[in-house]
């Protein structure tokens, strides 16, 4: 008896024909399914033991070859024998696609071509149909085509996808002469004369695919198959190389002159790693999952054996390895494109979009002995350019920026090969550092040039501190890019602001940029603000040390270096203050101003903060955040200038009342005085003039209509928020009910201001992040939220049941652990205790926290809600029922325990849900 499971399956079928196809399938499929499962289990065990992705996919491909052959032989032997086949009863079974390359991931499709001599016959149609039914019964995803040689060539000439499929065709079994004829004619009739068309089509196809999957190769949830630098990019390189160089195996690319032996070893290393990750991904998820989402990254890191080291967790080290591989794939892509262009197999390149607006020159000189303009790009005159003068490794990129030209791939390739020339002497060379500072602070497109330096490996070698964060991801849902990509994008945003672009998004920054005196310090600070990420100590403090070290090296003065260090140390201060503190509280502004001290620092910090937030990722910057930053800036500007902030509190209240009186000319003085007396001084000091007038009319109309509970809403497209105003009798659980109703209706609260009138009515403003682009859609949503709040306040619905029914388990957040923290501070406000709560975000969290605060008999004066991906930071300004701060240590400890229990209870419930 054979040890081959597929041979045993055929032996068990015997030699006699079977009655029908259904009988064959019933006898054949169970054995094949068992052999298939056994083979996959063996492949997974081998992968876990030896960590070789290519070995795994080749093993699975070989197993599939044997299975398909077994199905064919069973069908031909037992259902449709052809003892004396005619010329029409010839068939070749051919593997195509990834399967044609002899690689098959656990969840991949099985692509088959049933090749015929000239047309389909009853015999071939029956054989193919019977084979497919067996494969489908095995639950395999089969892509198939039945064509003659002529049909293959005709459709391949017209369709680039079919042409690519034929390029990868691999003979399995059947009539070998048919397959040989197809390949010979395909090479002669199609490939030989269409290389440029094929290359052009494949590169355009790649651009479209990458744009769909996410344009940056540094997205923190990458697509292993279709993302930039993924497996499909390597496939594309090999397709192009096969087509142009007419090779069959990757190893032949060295002999063909496309790759050096070292570059081919890099190609092989990238291919094996990406296959390894993809196989682990398919096995771990049990499906053809191609995206490395947060919830599987930790699982794959553990399967691959990545452990914590040097301040990075195991998953962060694994993802850094992944991003370095995708960077290497990008290098290989540039090499192939350069070689193809040299052979004129590739159409004239499309230059970088950002550089495209500048002038183009076909050739010329640069007044430099080592460089020239080669086909609109900066190139070296000889391969000894960098060896002769290592400063040229920086000068290459400086020239590209100065002349607004891209760099020739040959020069980039040589720079990457010459990285060993970048040592301490070059790093401390004054000229090299002067050139780098020129690049960094350029008014052209420093983002593009810095990215080219980074991709070539020059930036990380020239600045080793930057090299440490190359390809480093932060395992959270807030940051969309790796740290190095985030820093480079920050420089791009800074350049946009200086150029006056996107003034509608950040008008104040555009306005003040021209008045900034420390421009060089600002650019360096933006470049360095996150450079110490991934270290055990706080990255702002560690970054300050790095800034003090690099400033003099770059050629900055002592004062400039001090400014850079201060900005790096405090680069999160303005964002955190604006988003999580009560900006109407004088203590907030005073505390912030004491750190900032000067108007110049305030300007620098504002611009740096905007660049930092905008470079985090798409959708992170909002008009609401911009408005908060502008409010903080203007309040601090007044205080630093010794202006109106010092005005007596009573006088400021009087001025606010006078402004409102002027806005309400139709009110009698008696009516106005009665309304003004209902509000505390805090109301007049904290609300802006426009909101005061709207609320006065809102309260008047509600009371005229006899409504004790009333709501109104409006959108603010510029800030990207929707405001809800609620009038209701006050009680301790009021804010909890409002936040619960918002959570149940899908409203995401970002801020809340709460006021109580002297006659016991609450006048609260709730700010929601905008969900729809169109005002009419957003207003309809706001109406639903407002009606939900009214029903809850009137007792028509039980808010706890409503919220609990809207608590979906967020799959993506399950991958994260955010230790909950509660801090209680009495120094941040003159009148209230500030409670800051942070932990893992979830639906209904704000409701749970405000409910807990209500049960603790705390009055909430204002709430400020910030979400950083999976992490929520909620800040509440509270007083005891007597209106005083919470100062007793025992009372504070009780508050802390109760709020931490909100997280612990949910964590326990989540664990129970997962185990169930």
Strand content: 5-15%
Classify the helix fraction into a percent range. Answer: 55-70%
The DSSP helix count reads 40
Quote the distance from N terminus to C terminus: 46 Å
Number of strands: 15
**Structural domains: how many:** 5
Overall pLDDT score? 87
**Which blocks of ≥5 consecutive residues have pLDDT under 50?**
348-363, 908-916
Radius of gyration: 34 Å
Provide an overview of this structure.
- The chain is α+β, with helices and mostly antiparallel strands and 916 residues long.
- It has 5 domains: 5-193, Beta Polymerase, domain 2; 196-342, Four Helix Bundle (Hemerythrin (Met), subunit A) (Up-down Bundle); 358-449, Hydrophobic Seed Protein, CATH 1.10.110; 472-477 and 484-646; 691-912, no CATH class.
- Helix content is 56%, strand content 11%.
- The strands form 3 sheets. An 8-stranded antiparallel β-sheet has the order 8-9-11-10-14-15-13-12, with helices on both faces.
- It starts with a helix and ends with a helix.
Question: Quick recap of the structure?
Answer:
Its EC number is 2.7.7.59, 3.1.4.-. The protein has 916 residues and is α+β, with helices and mostly antiparallel strands.
Lay out the secondary structure.
Elements (H helix, E strand, L loop, with lengths): L4 H9 L7 H30 L2 H26 L13 E4 L1 H4 L9 E7 L5 H16 L4 E7 H10 L1 H8 L2 E5 L1 H14 L5 H19 L17 H15 L6 H4 L5 H25 L8 H11 L9 H29 L20 E3 L5 E4 L2 E4 L4 H4 L3 H11 L6 H9 L6 H4 L2 H11 L5 H11 L1 H5 L1 H4 L15 H17 L7 H7 L5 H10 L10 H16 L3 H12 L3 H8 L5 H11 L2 H16 L8 H18 L8 H15 L5 H9 L3 H6 L2 H16 L5 E7 L4 E9 L4 H11 L4 E8 L4 E9 L5 H19 L5 H6 L16 E5 L7 E8 L4 H11 L2 E11 L2 E10 L8 H27 L1
Helix pairs in contact: 1-2, 1-3, 2-3, 2-5, 3-5, 3-12, 6-7, 6-8, 9-10, 10-14, 12-13, 12-14, 13-14, 16-19, 16-20, 20-23, 23-25, 23-30, 25-27, 26-27, 28-31, 29-31, 30-31, 36-37, 36-39, 39-40
